C-alpha cells in the first residue's frame, strides 16, 4: 500500500538563516536526542538547513523515493527511512539530479547511496550510511510519503527542520528551532575570548569547567 500525504509547511527563512550560521555539534553540546547517528556526508565542507520531506520504503523497493523526489520544492530536504536496511542504495545520480533540479537543499538517507561521483559532480549534499553498488528497485510494493519516520536513531516528522553540516544531521520541530540559532551562536561566540586566553597560556579546562573536577 502507498500513502502519500500533503507536503508540509516549509520552515521560515529566518530559522534557516540563523541555523545556517551555526554548527550542528553546538546543539550536540546541549541535547542528546534527534541526531542521525552513524551517518556521514558525501563531501566536506557541507552545510544545509531545510524542511523535511519524509519517505519510508521497504528495503528493496524505492518506488516512493522516486515519487517523492518529483514533489520536492526549493529548500526541502529528502529524508529516507529504509526500514532498517542500511546496505542497499535508493539514492543515485538520477535521483540526486532530480532533487537538485527541484531546488532541494539536501538529502538524509538511512541507507547507502550509489553513483557517488555523479552526485558529487552535481554538488548535491547527501548524508547517508555510506556507498553501495547494490541498489533498490522500482517494485511497487509499498511506501509512505510525509509520515513520521525513524532515521538513524531519530524520529523525523514531515515539516521538521533538518540541520546538517560536515559532522552530520540533527532534526528539530519548527517550534524547537525558534531562537535556537541565536542561542547556538552565543555559545560559539564565547569561544572567541577563550581562544585568546588559551593562546596566552590559559587553560582549556578553566574555560570548559573541567578544572572544577581536578582531584
Ligand atoms: O535509480 C535509483 O534508484 C538509483 C540510481 O542509480 C539513480 O538515481 O541514478
Ligand atoms: Mg544511477
From TrEMBL:
Pfam families (UniProt xref): RraA-like
Binding site for substrate: 92-95
Enzyme superclass (EC): lyase
Cofactor: a divalent metal cation; Mg(2+)
Binding of Mg(2+), residues: 115
Keyword Signal in record: no
EC identifiers of the protein: 4.1.1.112, 4.1.3.17
InterPro entries assigned to the protein according to its UniProt record, in alphabetical order: RraA/RraA-like, RraA/RraA-like_sf
Enzymatic reactions: 4-hydroxy-4-methyl-2-oxoglutarate = 2 pyruvate; oxaloacetate + H(+) = pyruvate + CO2
Function: Catalyzes the aldol cleavage of 4-hydroxy-4-methyl-2-oxoglutarate (HMG) into 2 molecules of pyruvate. Also contains a secondary oxaloacetate (OAA) decarboxylase activity due to the common pyruvate enolate transition state formed following C-C bond cleavage in the retro-aldol and decarboxylation reactions.
Family: Belongs to the class II aldolase/RraA-like family.
Protein name stated in the entry: Putative 4-hydroxy-4-methyl-2-oxoglutarate aldolase
Amino acid at each position: 500500500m502507498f500513502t502519500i500525504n500533503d507536503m508540509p509547511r516549509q520552515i521560515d527563512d529566518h530559522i534557516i538563516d540563523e541555523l545556517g550560521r551555526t554548527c550542528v555539534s553546538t546543539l550536540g553540546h546541549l541535547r542528546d536526542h534527534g541526531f542521525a547517528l552513524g551517518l556521514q556526508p558525501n563531501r566536506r565542507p557541507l552545510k544545509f538547513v531545510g524542511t523535511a520531506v519524509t519517505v519510508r520504503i521497504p528495503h528493496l523497493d524505492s518506488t516512493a523515493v522516486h515519487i517523492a523526489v518529483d514533489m520536492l520544492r526549493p529548500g526541502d530536504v529528502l529524508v529516507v527511512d529504509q526500514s532498517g536496511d542500511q546496505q542497499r542504495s535508493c539514492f543515485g545520480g538520477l535521483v540526486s539530479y532530480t532533487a537538485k533540479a527541484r531546488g532541494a537543499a539536501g538529502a538524509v538517507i538511512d541507507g547507502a547511496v550509489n553513483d557517488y561521483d555523479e552526485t558529487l559532480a552535481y554538488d548535491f549534499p547527501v548524508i547517508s550510511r555510506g556507498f553501495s553498488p547494490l541498489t533498490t528497485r522500482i517494485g511497487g510494493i509499498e511506501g509512505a510519503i510525509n509520515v513520521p519516520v525513524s532515521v538513524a536513531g531519530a524520529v523525523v516528522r514531515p515539516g521538521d527542520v533538518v540541520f546538517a553540516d560536515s559532522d552530520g544531521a540533527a532534526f528539530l520541530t519548527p517550534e524547537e528551532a525558534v531562537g535556537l540559532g541565536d542561542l547556538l551562536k552565543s555559545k560559539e561566540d564565547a569561544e572567541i575570548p577563550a581562544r585568546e586566553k588559551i593562546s596566552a597560556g590559559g587553560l582549556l579546562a578553566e574555560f570548559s569547567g573541567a578544572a572544577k573536577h581536578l582531584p
